[in-house]
Structures are given as structure tokens and as C-alpha cells.
Specification:
5-stranded antiparallel sheet; Immunoglobulin-like; mainly beta; 0% helix; globular; single chain; 3-stranded antiparallel sheet
Length: 83
């Protein structure tokens, strides 16, 4: 997904892969304090996934998704591109 941007102190993207038409990213917070972040790009929806690929939550995003990670949290998100 071209144009994807991640902002947030000590938040890193550890992986990115294509899953059908969607893009799945894995984020990790490398800190012992909770931190907020923002992902922006050409996507219209975001789903939080478990490690087996099951959907835990889904929401409309319209190109921006704000989130908070707990200390040392790893989170997998699936971004649905805008059509």
C-alpha cells in the first residue's frame, strides 16, 4: 500500500504483507510506557486481528487511524484500501 505513514514515539512496524486486497501490518511499542500513534494512508477500514488471523474488532477509518499501545504491546492490523 503506497503512501502508508506511521507516527508515534517508539512504535515500529515489524511486518507488512498483502492479504487478498488488504494489507496487514504488525506494530510493536518498544517502551515501558503506553503511547499513542497514528497511521495514515489510502485505506477506508481497519481491523484488529489476533495472531491466528481472526478479526477481533473492525472500524471505518477514512484514511486515518488513531490508537494507543500498552507497554511492549504487539498489535496486528488489517487495512482495507479505499476503492
Amino acid at each position: 500500500m503506497e503512501g502508508l505513514r506511521l507516527r508515534g514515539d517508539n512504535i515500529r512496524m515489524s511486518s507488512m504483507r498483502q492479504v487478498g486486497a488488504d494489507v496487514e501490518i504488525r506494530l510493536v511499542l518498544l517502551a515501558d510506557q503506553a503511547t499513542g500513534g497514528v497511521i495514515t494512508g489510502p485505506f477506508g477500514g481497519v481491523s484488529t486481528m489476533d495472531l491466528a488471523g481472526g478479526e477481533l474488532a473492525s472500524e471505518h477509518a477514512d484514511g486515518e487511524f488513531k490508537f494507543e499501545l500498552a507497554p511492549w504491546e504487539i498489535r496486528t492490523l488489517r487495512l482495507t484500501p479505499t476503492r
